Amino acid sequence: MSHESRTESVPDRLIVQDASSTAGAGRNDAISRAGESGTGAGSVDRAAATGGGLLLVGVALAAANMRPAVTSLSSVLGGVRDSLGAGATWASVLTSVPTLCFGVAGISAPVLARRWGMQRVVGVALGLLTLAMLVRVTGGAATVFAGTVVACGAIAMCNVLIPVVVKDSFPNRVGMATGIYTTAMAAGGSIGSAFTPWLRTELGGWRLALATWSVLALAAFVIWAAAGRNAPAGSSPSAPSCSKEGKSLARSPLAWAVTGYFAMQSLVAYVIMGWLPEVFKSAGTGAGTAGALLGLVLLIGVPISMVLPPLVTRTNGQSVWTVGLAATAIAGFLGILLAPMAAPVLWAVLIGTGMSAFPLALVLISLRSSNAAETSRLSGMAQSTGYLIASTGPFLFGVLHNTTGSWTASLVVLIGVLAVQAIIGVFAGRPRTV
Question: Which GO terms of the molecular function aspect are on file (predicted)?
C-alpha cells in the first residue's frame, strides 16, 4: 500500500545507497548478532574512531578504482581493437562487460561477504583487480577480454560492498564518508579517460598505458589490507542477511518504475563510458581530445554528485529533476548528432550534467521505501535487474554502428532511451512508497 513520503527531512542513509543491493539488508540484525557474540555496535564505532582515518583513505582509493579499468580502455578502444585485429563485435561485447558484472555481483557479493566478511572480500577483489589489469595487456584479444571480465567482476564486488562498509564503519560520519567515496569514484573515472591517450603516447603503446592504472589498484589493496589489520578485533563489519519480510516488490508498479529508471540511466552511462571517445573521434577530434572530453563528462559529476542528493530530498517529489536531467543529456546528444564539432565542450558539459541521474537514482531508491529493510529490498531489485538490462546498451550501440556504418542510428536510439528514462522518471519521482 502506497503512502506519502516525507521528503522534508531525510537522514544521511539516503545518500549512502549505492550498488549495495541485498548486501544492505537487515543491518540491525547484523548488529544484534554481533552483540550476542560480545561485539556490538560500540566496537564498530570504536573502529571508526581508532582506525577510521586509514580505512577512509582505503575507501577513497578503492572508490578511485571503480572506473579507470573501464574508462582507460574506452579512451583507446579503437587503437586496441586495430592493434589486436579484433572485430567490431568484440568491442561491442567488451563494452557490455561492466554492467553485466554489476548485475551478477548484486546477487553473488552478499553471499561471499556473509561467508568471508565484507572487508576481506573487498581486499581480495582489489588484489584481483590489480592482477587483472596487468594480465589483460600481456596477450591478444582473448586475454584482453578475459582480463577485463575479471577486472570488472572485482570492481563490481567493491561497488556492492564498499557503501555498506562505509555505513557500518562510519555510522556518525556517513555524509562525509559517502561524499569522499562518490567524489573519488567520479575523479578516478575522469582521470582514467583523460590521461590514458597521453600515457599511450609517452610510454609508446596502449599496453603500458593501461597497465599503469594497476598501480592505483595496488595502492588501494595495500592501504585496505593495512586498515583491516589495524581494526580492533571483532570490529570488521559482516554482511547482513536479507530480510524476507514484506510483500513481493515484483507486484509493485512503483518498484518497477524505480528499477526502470535505474536501468535506463545505467544504460546511458555505460554507453557514454564505453563509446563516447569513439563517437568524438569519428567526428574529427584526435584521440587525446576525445579522451579528455570523456574525462570532462565524468568530471562534471564530481560537484553535482555532492550537492544533488540533499537538494532533491528537500523537494516534494523528484519528477522535475528526472525530466530535467534527461532533457539536458538529450540536448548534448542532439548537439553531437547535428553539429559535433561546433561546440564539443558544451556537448560534453550537457551530457555530464545529464549523467547525474545516477546519484538521483540512488536517492529515489531510498525515498520510495519506508524503512531500511524495504530500502535494501528495493535496492536489490533496482540495481541487480537494472544493471542486467543496462548491459544490452553498449553492445547494441556498437552493433548499430557496425551495421549502419555511422553513429547516427546509435545516437538516435540513445536519445530515445533518454526520453523513456524521463517518462519513467515522472512515475518514479512521485512522492509515495512501495
Answer: transmembrane transporter activity
Amino acid letter, residue 315: T
pLDDT tens sequence across 227-273 = 877 655 444 555 555 444 556 788 899 999 999 999 999 999 999 98
Q: What is the pLDDT of residue 164?
A: 74
Q: What percent of the chain has pLDDT over 70?
A: 82
The domain ranges of the chain are: 13-428
C-alpha closest to that of 167 among 374, 35, 14: 14
Tens digit of each residue's pLDDT (9 = 90 or more) over 334-356? 999 999 999 999 999 999 999 98
- Does the pTM of the predicted model rise above 0.90? no
Torsion angle of the four alpha carbons 274, 276, 281, 282, in this order, in degrees rounded to the nearest 10: 100
Angle between the N-to-C axes of helices 174-203 and 52-64, in degrees from 0 to 180, rounded to the nearest 10: 50
Model confidence band, residue 369 (pLDDT cutoffs 50, 70, 90): confident
C-alpha grid cell, residue 400:
548499430
Q: What is the CATH number of domain 13-428?
A: 1.20.1250.20
How far apart, in Å, do the first and last CA atoms of the chain sit? 7
> Do the Cβ atoms of 15 and 166 come closer than 8 Å?
no
Q: What was the pLDDT predicted at 238?
A: 52
Indicate the angle between helix axes 41-50 and 52-64, nearest 10 degrees. Answer: 80
